[in-house]
Amino acid sequence: MLIMGVFTLYFLIPIWWLLVSSTKTQGEFTTTAPLIFTADAIPTFINNLGGLFAYNDNVFVKWILNSVLYAGAGALIGTVIAAMCGYALAKYGFRGREAVFNVVLSGVLVPATALALPLFLIFSQVGLTNTFWAVFLPSIVSPFGVYLARIYASSSVPDELLEAARLDGSSEVRTFFTVATRLMAPALVTIFLFQFVAIWNNFFLPLIMLRDPDLFPVTLGLYSWNSSIGQNPELRSFVVIGAFVSIVPLIIAFLSLQRFWSGGLAAGSIK
Amino acid sequence: MQRKFRMAALSAAVVSALALAGCTAATTTEPAAGGCEPSDGPVNLTYAAWWPGADEVVALWNEQNPDVQVEFQTGPNGNSGTYQNFFNQITAGNAPDLGQIEYDALPSFRVQDGLENIAACGDILAAGDQFVDWTWSQTTFGEADAVYAIPQDSGPIAMYYRADLFEAAGIPVPTTWDEYAAAAAQIKALGSFITNFPKTDVNWFAGMVWQNGGQWFTNNGADWSVDLTSEKSLEVADYWQGLLDRQEVSTLASFSDEWNASFNTGQQWTWISAVWGAGTIRSGAPDTSGKWAVALMPQWNAGDNAAGNWGGSSTAVLKGSKHPYEAAQFALWLNTDPAALELANELGGLYPASKDGANLPVFLAEQEFYGGQKIYEVFAEASAQVIPDFVWGPSMTQTYTDVSDGFGAVIGGAGTLADALATGTEKTIAALTALSIPVAQ
């Protein structure tokens, strides 16, 4: 219990710092205690927020929307693909099934960072670098999602049920969408959340692919600001409050999907 | 299980084959075809930079030049990723036409054939007179008939000091490094520091060596020589080692909150820094407004007038640009046009490398934060005193990291600055050898 308390504190203090710091003016950063609110915290916070959103033609708002689009749409499509793939691997017997599964599984072992440069060179060949697709397309594949979907489908979707659906004349596609996905829901939520967080936090791929600031996700945008604080000290408080704002959607996603979620995570462990 | 491993190995092999394909593509980039002629018809260029306000200056050009439209692109600052991106893009053949490159990174681009020679693009070669001498020699590498970039801004070094504190304590403002050390002892006795030693800003340290007439790198046209421990360089190292040993300088992480706070609360009496540092103090130490002043750097010998430089960048035409002529004209306009320079200073705080740029109205004004002093007159004087032939090496990012590691160890109590420089020399030679860059032993 004590250990858990210590670790909780350890993980929460940086977020607390972020919250407190985003309620300070540039001058207060250096002159006030780092973990304690100042007297005029709320007006300063609102002021900082206004400054952040207005800076450079609302570019920060654009970045947040980009991130929402990359992560939201990417995770949604990624989840559908992973679910279909995992379901097929679990429920259809075909030649090479295990081989396909193992290749997908080996994809889990390759870190996304290692793939960024090869992807850049491939996307250069087809002229898609510095476009929306350069970040979006690689985001919709999730080998881990396929793995989880397969494990979950094989344990939670009974073959008898599929057989019954077939006898009732349901097509395979319809069976998948109306029967299987319902049963797989906890796993799908897990896959969605994992993928959402992974895309939201993805930094290296956009860093390599994008040069047009209108396409940046919020991670890359904040990083570029942070890297030019030396030249433009005004950005310091925007980076801090921007970082704070950028974790809010993640918190919302987690809290709102949490109740669907707990069932999914352990599903693979006993199989 | 066995099978799973085999599959993993196979896919790993596929990945590395792809990576290798990427590498081999690098060596087959074709040289640009001869001369440099204007293109027919309207031209679209791309310019990647990270200095604040670049987009608005580009917009100004686009308004005035409907036939040559420039698209602005951006990213993190060079060493934080944009240089690596430039190299990737040059390899893939889709680099922007123009890119911001700091002076200390130009040689690495030159060595890896990442820059177009724009000397033949109209009157570029003749434009050299318009720029401060040392900046021009950085972009030509001293080669005849060669211009690889147009100087943009520079960072001549001077000394920011707390005029009020020096006066109250009755300590004369130091004009030589000996006087500076004497003042350091007196200030220590008063419970403050004369300055902070920035262990991670190795380019600042290079600026100190630069002022002393030292060199870290030389290039005879065929081979590079690396020597971070020349006599001049060691003189600087020993000097700062002395200040560190006597604990007369603080060792805070530069530009950190603590660092700002120590300026804001009067713990720091001076900062030997570049012209762009004026804005850093103003925003980091707002409570000290009106109390600062600027003087030329302390000298190694009384009566000398030498200055170093810290920072500054150029606008380069990257390899593979299809419109080098128009790109070169844009770069020249960007860095000489009065309206462009004024906007760049207002939005990005750039101090122009152009000689005329130093006479813009903004640089003639009295600065309230600096007690009403016309500080840019001091920097203009310093700029003219910067020793013109300092040479950067072809792998400065690596050199900085290695020396900075050593400096960090010194702060932790292990070794000396001179040791760190010696290690830096060894590691840099090893790194250059690994990159197949010829090094004279």
Notes on the structure:
The complex is a heterodimer of chains A (271) and B (441). The two termini of chain A are 30 Å apart. By secondary structure, chain A is mainly α. The mean pLDDT of chain A is 90. Chain A has 13 helices and no strands. Chain A has one domain (51-270): MetI-like fold, CATH 1.10.3720.10. Chain B is an alpha+beta fold and 441 residues long. Chain B starts with a helix and ends in a 7-residue tail after the last helix. In chain B, strand 1 (43-48), helix 2 and strand 2 form a beta-alpha-beta unit. Chain B folds into 2 domains: 38-154 and 311-359, D-Maltodextrin-Binding Protein, domain 2 (3-Layer(aba) Sandwich); 157-309 and 372-434, D-Maltodextrin-Binding Protein, domain 2, CATH 3.40.190. Chain B has helices spanning 2-27, 54-64, 82-92, 106-111, 133-140, 163-169, 177-189, 202-211, 231-245, 257-264, 277-284, 324-336, 338-348, 375-385, 396-411, 417-434; strands at 43-48, 68-73, 98-102, 149-151, 157-162, 217-219, 224-226, 270-274, 292-295, 313-317. Helices cover 44% and strands 10% of the residues of chain B. Chain B contains 16 helices and 10 strands. At the A-B interface, helix 2, helix 4, helix 5 and helix 12 of A face helix 1, helix 3, helix 10 and helix 11 of B.
